[in-house]
Amino acid sequence: MSYFCDKYPVIEKKALAGGIFSITVKCPDAANAAEVGQFANILADGYTLRRPISICEIDKDQGTLRFVFEVRGKGTEVISHANVGDNLDVLGPLGNGFKVPEGKKVIVVGGGIGVPPLLGIAKQCGADCTAILGFRSYDKVILDKEFAAYGANTIVCTDDGSVGYHGVVTTPLTEELAKGNVDLVCACGPEPMIKAVVKECEDNNIPCRVSLEQRMGCGVGACVVCSCMTVRNGKEYYSRVCKDGPVFDAKEVRFDG
Amino acid sequence: MADLSVKIAGVDFKNPVIMASGAYGNGECYTDLYPISELGGISCKGMTIEPKMGNIPPRIAETPSGILNSVGLQNIGVRGFVDYYLDTLKEEGKGTVIIANVAGATLDDYIAAAEILESSNVDMIELNISCPNVKAGGATWGVTTEGAAAVTKAVRNATKKPLIVKLTPNVTSIADIAKAVEAEGADSISVINTLLGMRIDIRNRRPILHNNVGGLSGPAIFPVAVRCVWQCFNAVKIPIIGMGGISTWEDAVEMMLAGASAIQMGTAIFTDPYAPLKVTEGLAKYMDDNGIKSLSEIVGQVKPW
Lengths: 257, 305
Ligand SMILES: Cc1cc2nc3c(=O)[nH]c(=O)nc-3n(C[C@H](O)[C@H](O)[C@H](O)COP(=O)(O)OP(=O)(O)OC[C@H]3O[C@@H](n4cnc5c(N)ncnc54)[C@H](O)[C@@H]3O)c2cc1C
Ligand SMILES: Cc1cc2nc3c(=O)[nH]c(=O)nc-3n(C[C@H](O)[C@H](O)[C@H](O)COP(=O)(O)O)c2cc1C
What we know:
The complex is a heterodimer.
Chain A: E1 4-17, E2 20-26, H1 28-33, E3 39-42, E4 51-54, E5 57-59, E6 64-70, H2 74-80, E7 87-94, E8 106-111, H3 119-125, E9 129-135, H4 144-149, E10 153-158, E11 165-166, H5 170-178, E12 184-188, H6 191-204, E13 208-211, E14 227-232, E15 235-240, E16 247-249
Parallel strand pairs in A: 8-9, 8-12, 9-10, 10-11, 12-13
Antiparallel strand pairs in A: 1-2, 1-7, 2-6, 3-4, 3-7, 5-6, 13-16, 14-15
Helix pairs in contact in A: 5-6
Chain B: E1 6-8, E2 11-13, E3 17-19, E4 41-43, E5 60-63, E6 66-69, H1 77-93, E7 97-102, H2 107-118, E8 124-128, H3 139-142, H4 145-158, E9 163-167, H5 174-183, E10 188-191, E11 195-198, E12 200-201, E13 206-207, E14 213-217, H6 222-233, E15 240-243, H7 249-258, E16 260-265, H8 268-271, H9 275-290
The complex binds flavin-adenine dinucleotide (FAD) and flavin mononucleotide.
């Protein structure tokens, strides 16, 4: 695994939903090294800290990486101003990905802006992937058609029932797990959702990998600020989300820690 | 190309750019971009005699032109550093000066750490008596002349390694602390550690840092750092390593004019991982352009009004 840091040209930009943007950059070296579930630390001009954004899609042939992100504050606002032809200063690919083995049946569970890093799993697994994607309401729904286009059995849920299944992602997850024939669950989203998914997987004895967020500094493991409590061999310690994660085996994460 | 080398406490640095403790791990995290041998030195992650878990996250908050951190000295312990990292650092560094940054709660902690390092091949010891993020020890030693003198004296007796003492700016007179550690045998001082700060999320009225307060670093503290270095330069004879918010070669020159013989960079690499190399290149060009043969020519050469 290796990473790069350079200014790369934006070759495509789209607005997906209110305040959510898709930006694709041409970065052959970084794209070639990237794995599904890794992230990049993107410079927001004028700010001290880079913003961690997951890699949504990797195209090694075209040498591109795609990022899908929501404007949350000033940094993501600045990044959202990058247009085709502008350069984005990208440090990546960083961290560990989902590492989904070939030929496995996978359920991916995404909540809101946690959905983008899961798209690569649908691309890899096609019809062997079931995607359960939760959003607040219809105007926040993103990428559902792209999951479906890759062949994933795609289930959209909204909190307000404005489209798709009315309710939280765990209800369809329970139903899908009950059908059996699932090797692995991968989840990314708000912490309450992740906790509920992890519990569901534990109850059904299905392996689960989760992608976590934490406020970050360097992004490469040096400054140990983005810690998350983990347990290995009965020993508790703080792992680094940027370097040891962002994807963790759910069994190793102490969510109350 | 200009000769960027500097000498501090008898130790030769190939260039004056040293990575500040805590921002660069133990040198293992940035080698994808450039070899550590490009750096003048590395001050390794602050280490304690026993491994430390560190503080509960979140441990970082952005501020205007800077950050607050409250890592709380998460580290694998002095023995872990010597066993797992030191040989690789020395080998890959090819002359890059390797500095062990040491913190402790008690005098015995500092002494025990220094004794282990004394028999290692680390090049220098930097005594961290200025960490704002741990309950016991750390900055509690560095905020009084008596405390600073006591730690320096104890460690001085435990090691012959060149000894740097790292000072906190969170004091009334940093010059007095500098004099106190010089008197007890410090070979150099590094100035400054972070300034104590706080940020609150107005939506939930919670401090952003779980530790409530943390250390401020980055460009925001640069003028404070320049002032502290200048005050220390006027107070002591031992060489000063200046740091706090340096991100460009111009900052490095300014810090040297204030009295620093070398500089450290921390937070700047979070923004631009290549910043240390850009500073080295910029300094070389500055020397060539101005006919400067050795950086020692500019140290402390500010002309105060
Ligand atoms: C590994 C990882 C992957 C991510 N992937 C995506 C993605 O694909 N799409 C997306 O929209 N968002 C993603 N996020 C969240 C994204 O990083 C934050 O929304 C963003 O940093 C907010 O920056 P801001 O300047 O807009 O907000 P501000 O609130 O102004 O930011 C202030 C500081 O807090 C940090 N911060 C604020 N919220 C978060 C957060 N949730 N996680 C980490 N740091 C935060 C910022 O980085 C910045 O340092 C990811 C976060 C992590 C850790
Ligand atoms: C994340 C982080 C961790 C730090 N850890 C240490 C440490 O372990 N020991 C120490 O002496 N200083 C530590 N510092 C302080 C820096 O070494 C430096 O003194 C300070 O950040 C000012 O320099 P800068 O503005 O260039 O970062 C840390 C700073 C940061 C940002």
